[in-house]
Amino acid sequence: MLMAHGWGASLDLLEPLALPLSRLGYQCRMIDLPGFGESDEPPRPFSIFDFADFCIAYLDQRGLDAVNFFGHSLGGRIGLILASDYSDRIQKMALSNSAGVKPEAPLHSRMRLGVYKSVRRSLEGLGAESAANRWRAAYNRRFGSVDLLNASPVMRGTLIKVVNQDLLEQARRVSVATILIWGDEDAETPLWMGQALEAAIPDAALIVHQGAGHYAYLDYPQKTAKIIDALYRVS
Length: 235
Known about the structure:
Distance between the termini: 16 Å
Number of domains: 2
Strand order of the largest sheet: 2-1-3-4-5-6
Order of helices and strands: EHEHEHEHHHHHEHEHH
Number of helices: 11
Largest sheet: 6 strands, parallel
Number of strands: 6
Shape: globular
Low-confidence stretches: 106-111
Helix content: 40-55%
Strand content: 5-15%
CATH architecture of the largest domain: 3-Layer(aba) Sandwich
């Protein structure tokens, strides 16, 4: 089983789920995605498709033709690509609190972003690069997420590429049996996103852990392992 973590995490946060899965007989291949854990940053800002290509290269390097897949959050985004564009390499898939459904920003946020981009383009058009950079930095400090503010330049570019990619169309092309594990108190990828993915993926079922948040699989590792095992053992 190939296992991919979420943004800002590492393979360490996959171990609490990998341990009960290993007791059930699974060989769990946990990876640090580029830019996280012990892995080097990518040479340029990665898109979610680049992360998927990284996973395929990992499988090729180790001679693994097809695997089961588990992904959390960012790892869920990767799973949607793998199970649609590389479905011959994925047998079955389990995603916990997967990102990939892009919510529509409120009107005031869209207007604010439009003003920001307009001012930045004007400054760049005038050749005032330093002023444009200061404007960008000020906007990010005021309205950027913690992940964005803490990221290096390469990973900041990666985050922007990743979060702006809506993957519902990819989800509609997923051709493997999929289980979606969610927490009903997830504030980062709310439950409605899991419901949207369940509706989009042709063969998917959503299971909700009551009282769990964005790391639903960590809140209920033993239960999640049994759910995954039940899916993967069905012929």
